[in-house]
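Good morning N.,

You mentioned wanting to compare the apo and holo forms, so I went ahead and generated the holo version with manganese (II) ion. This is what I fed in:
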Amino acid sequence: MRILHTSDWHIGRIFHGHPTYQALREVLLALIEVVRAQEVDVVVIAGDVFDSSTPSAEAVEMLDEALLDLTEAGVVVVTISGNHDSPARLGAKSVFAKAAGVHVITRPEQIAAPVVLTDAYGPVNFYGIPFLEPSRMRSLWQVDPMRSQKDALSYAMGLVRADLAARGGRSVVLAHTFVQGAEVESAESERDIVGGMDVVPATVFEGISYAALGHIHSPAKLGSNLGYCGSPLHGSFSEAGKPRGAWLVELGAEGAARVDWVELPVPRPLTTLTGTLDQLLADPTHAAVEGHWVRVLVTDSIRPLDAMKKLQARFPYCVHIEFQPSGGTPEVDSGYAELVRGRSDAELVEVFLAKVRNGEGASPDEVKLIREAIASCEVRQVLG
Ligand SMILES: [Mn+2]
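and this is what came out, ligand included:
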């Protein structure tokens, strides 16, 4: 049996203000090509199908299209809800989806009710563990302690093992959680979710033929039969350069016989450029990345005017600027209190400018502007 492991589609995600539907559609079409070319039998999606618990109409439609394409390619689909998904929304109409071979597992009650598929070597049990919130599991399962992901996943895997012992056969587990060993691949785009390092030891998946993990957005192989495949699109600049793809798992008589990485296209790579504004706008070596998503670290000692507008004239997908003046950012030292004591409002602005511009104070024109602006505020205050 051939299984393609993908996860964290995050349909509907906004990347620095830009929708990602078209880019994701392109990658998913490539994934469907892989499914056909590699004669995949089952596609597993390990959670965070949508980016939002209230997906837009376009996001819902996009998932329907992708699932329809997959079923038309002749595969069975098994998926779970991740922490970004609303279990109720993702699971809506799942009874009908099931009739088409799309198994959507969003409720903890479904953990020990595997999707059983059969190949020449017998049954393969697909267990889906949707993202679990320990505090909610405590009341459902009446188990103590139930405080961490480790507690929740250990208990869930106990349910899986008990069911598997009774059934026999090979097993694939889908889970959306942070498993130990993947820390290095943890990036900005999931760190807000991961929060504290509530990690689950990889040993909870021992004895399972293959564990298809989701939650970490870059690939991480944690053993011969478990790992993360990451998200189809880069979600943050910290993921730049990390591959995008899926794991192709060949299940033999005894379990995972081989696990191969399948590269998927990157519609628009991410690049970080560093330099002064003039250098960035002139340097011919940057021609190759003009169409990339670009983050720029501007090193001018004085913050240049209209930097974003100028950069976007050359790099239309420049989405983020950070100012890192070459002399370093001046420290607000203890002497600052002394510096501002007893100053007029206009003087305060001038002192501040000199401070943040490495000593370069306001120009005569700026002094005039500052004084006029402050005077007009003072007049308004007097008038009430
Ligand atoms: Mn995710």
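The chain is about 35% helix and 25% strand.

Happy to go through it together on a call whenever suits you.

Best,
F.
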